[in-house]
């Protein structure tokens, strides 16, 4: 199956400073991928290149289109949310829907209205009178009514409280996602989306360090609560990180490189945050 997004050798510099350094990434139908990295790693710059919003070097194919040359055609099948707080305040909800009908050929007005009918958002309300959570719901109503193959979300829930953030993602799964579509998300709140991600790509200093299915990396990496008498032995197996707190020692290992982990202590499956800290930390110390 052809990937919906294929990025190869993507490079980008600002004022002679390289920000993306030969980055490659592939997104296939059915995938919900988290693009995860520390501040300044290049996530937004990468998404902006994919969206054709920034000049770049390298090759990007989005749904068979080159974002530099065919941006208009590409946007027919692609939807993008940067920050839910960007809708103009003075607009009424009904006007926002009308606006979308005018600008997006694949926007389904009835689908959008049906989603809004399930919320407490009045059609005649001005956006400035809505709470942040309601604005997020309105944003979703606009985005999910676009019959897009790919949805790109850059920190979509910034500024929302935890309940609204959870709602945002559960509505997203319920109303947008299907196996012929793909979603690419950046967020710093990995723990909140780790259960919905099928894939994850760790980006550090303009490069992808790891891009795998979440099932695969949860098998590959293991967290061990190391028994006190095994600490030195465990350290000699080169853990990706070692955290010692109140006499307890947690270490993250690549299970393929350190096969006999149960002999060191209690083995468990790490969270994506654990794996992220281990992989990025190792790279930073290299
Ligand atoms: N318009 C710009 N001009 C100059 N430098 C820029 C510009 N935009 C981004 N940068 C730099 O590029 C690097 C990557 O920025 P980018 O916003 O892509 O990172 P990010 O991973 O999205 O970060 P964050 O998680 O903090 O949002 C940073 O060093 C940033 O300062």
In terms of topology, how is this protein built?
Elements: E1 5-14, E2 17-27, E3 32-36, H1 43-50, E4 57-62, H2 71-74, E5 78-81, H3 93-103, H4 109-117, H5 132-144, E6 150-154, H6 162-175, E7 182-186, H7 190-193, E8 199-204, E9 207-213, H8 214-220, E10 221-226, H9 231-235, E11 241-245, E12 248-254, E13 265-268, H10 272-285
Parallel strand pairs: 3-7, 3-8, 5-6, 6-7
Antiparallel strand pairs: 1-2, 1-4, 8-9, 10-12, 10-13, 11-12
The protein binds adenosine-5'-triphosphate.
Question: Explain this structure to me?
Answer:
This is ABC transporter ATP-binding protein. GO terms for molecular function: ATP binding. Keywords: ATP-binding, Nucleotide-binding, Transport. The chain is an alpha/beta fold. It contains ten helices and 13 strands. The chain folds into two domains: 201 residues, Rossmann fold (3-Layer(aba) Sandwich), CATH 3.40.50; 69 residues, no CATH class. α4 packs antiparallel against α5 and α5 packs parallel to α6. It is globular and about 65 Å long. The protein binds adenosine-5'-triphosphate (ATP).
């Amino acid at each position: 199956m052809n990937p919906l997004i294929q990025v190869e050798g993507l490079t980008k510099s600002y004022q002679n400073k390289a920000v993306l350094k030969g980055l490659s990434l592939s997104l296939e139908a059915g995938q919900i991928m988290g693009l995860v990295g520390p501040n300044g790693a290049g996530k937004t710059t990468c998404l902006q290149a994919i969206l054709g919003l920034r000049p770049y070097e390298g090759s990007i194919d989005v749904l068979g289109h080159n974002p530099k040359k065919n941006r208009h055609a590409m946007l027919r099948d692609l939807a993008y949310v940067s920050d839910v707080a960007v809708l103009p305040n003075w607009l009424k909800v009904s006007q926002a829907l009308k606006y979308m009908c005018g600008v997006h050929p694949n926007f389904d007005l009835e689908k959008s209205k049906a989603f809004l009918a399930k919320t407490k958002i009045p059609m005649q309300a001005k956006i400035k009178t809505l709470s942040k959570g309601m604005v997020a719901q309105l944003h979703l109503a606009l985005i999910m009514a676009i019959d897009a193959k790919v949805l790109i979300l850059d920190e979509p829930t910034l500024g929302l409280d935890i309940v609204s953030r959870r709602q945002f993602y559960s509505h997203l799964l319920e109303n947008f996602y299907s196996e012929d579509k793909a979603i690419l998300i950046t967020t710093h709140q990995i723990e909140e989306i780790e259960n919905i991600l099928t894939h994850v790509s760790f980006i550090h200093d303009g490069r992808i360090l790891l891009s795998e299915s979440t099932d695969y990396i949860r098998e590959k990496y293991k967290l061990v609560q190391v028994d006190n008498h095994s600490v030195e032995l465990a350290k000699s197996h080169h853990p990706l990180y070692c955290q010692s707190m109140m006499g307890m020692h947690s270490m993250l290992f690549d299970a393929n490189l350190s096969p006999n982990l149960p002999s060191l202590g209690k083995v468990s499956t790490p969270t994506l945050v654990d794996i992220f800290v281990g992989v990025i930390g190792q790279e930073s110390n290299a």
